[in-house]
Amino acid sequence: MIEIKNSKLSNGEFNRGVFATRDIAKGELIHEAPVIPYLNEEHVHIEKTILADYVYEYGANHTAILLGYGSLFNHSYTPNATYDINFDNHTFDFFAYTAIKAGDEILINYNGEVDCNDPLWFNEGE
């Protein structure tokens, strides 16, 4: 259903993104990304690495590295996907927020809510 390809939206070193290989219906589960959680106090070590740009908040006291395709979704303030944290399964579950056509890049809002327009670390000066 999804694949990694080069993205024109990514400003990162690798310029990758997640793309649909088939049409995906609104509300359809796209991906369940397992997490590796760690305490927020330990994030000072991660901040010294490229991983700092790829982690997610995981509850009040933890941050998480997402496995699978989880950390490769690019950002948009008009996303076509969203995610829920599934603490019971220790996954981030990505869903289609709108219908997604085969070949389209799948985009999430890094703020965690589809309609949140707060500035992000990579565009705070804009």
UniProtKB/TrEMBL annotation:
One term of GO molecular function: histone H3K37 methyltransferase activity
Domain SET: 1-111
One Pfam family, short name: SET
InterPro entries found in the cross-reference section: SET7_MeTrfase, SET_dom, SET_dom_sf
Coiled coil regions, renumbered to chain: none
Source organism per UniProt: Paenibacillus foliorum
Name of the featured protein: SET domain-containing protein-lysine N-methyltransferase
Lineage: Bacteria, Bacillati, Bacillota, Bacilli, Bacillales
